[in-house]
Amino acid sequence: MSDFERMLNDHRLTTAEILYHLPDHPKFLQSYIWQDLDIAPQFPVLSRFLSFWERELEGKLHSVKIASAKLIVPAEFVFCKGQLTIH
């Protein structure tokens, strides 16, 4: 399925800021930005990625902040109440 078809099927652009502990210096946090099309509020793609992270990578997760936005939405029309005439 193409990304456009996924967006029509309610997939949203999802961005996650993942804070994790550095493996060599566990008291320090590093930030990683992840972005993909996903379905809110379950976020199955992000959940699979985080499961992979915990299973395969050394940096222990600290926290995850998620932002999600629809990319294809109905157009909004705003009608003006006045008219400006220039010569």
Question: How do the strands and helices of this protein lay out in sequence?
Answer:
Blueprint lengths: L2 H6 L3 E10 L7 E10 L5 H13 L4 E9 L18
Antiparallel strand pairs: 1-2, 1-3
Task: Explain what this protein looks like in three dimensions.
The protein is α+β, with helices and mostly antiparallel strands and 87 residues long. Helices cover 22% and strands 33% of the residues. It has two helices and three strands. The protein has a three-stranded antiparallel beta sheet. Strand 1 (12-21) and strand 2 (29-38) form a beta hairpin. It is elongated, with a radius of gyration of 20 Å. The chain starts with a helix and ends in an 18-residue tail after the last strand. The model has no long low-confidence stretch (mean pLDDT 90).
The largest β sheet comes out as: 3 strands, antiparallel
Q: Which blocks of ≥5 consecutive residues have pLDDT under 50? A: none
C-alpha geometry: elongated
Number of helices: 2
Secondary structure: number of strands: 3
What share of the residues lie within helices? 10-25%
Q: Provide the succession of SSEs.
A: HEEHE
Main sheet: strand order? 2-1-3
Strand content: 25-35%
Radius of gyration: 20 Å
In round numbers, the mean pLDDT is 90
Q: What class would the helix/strand composition place it in?
A: alpha+beta
First-to-last CA distance: 53 Å
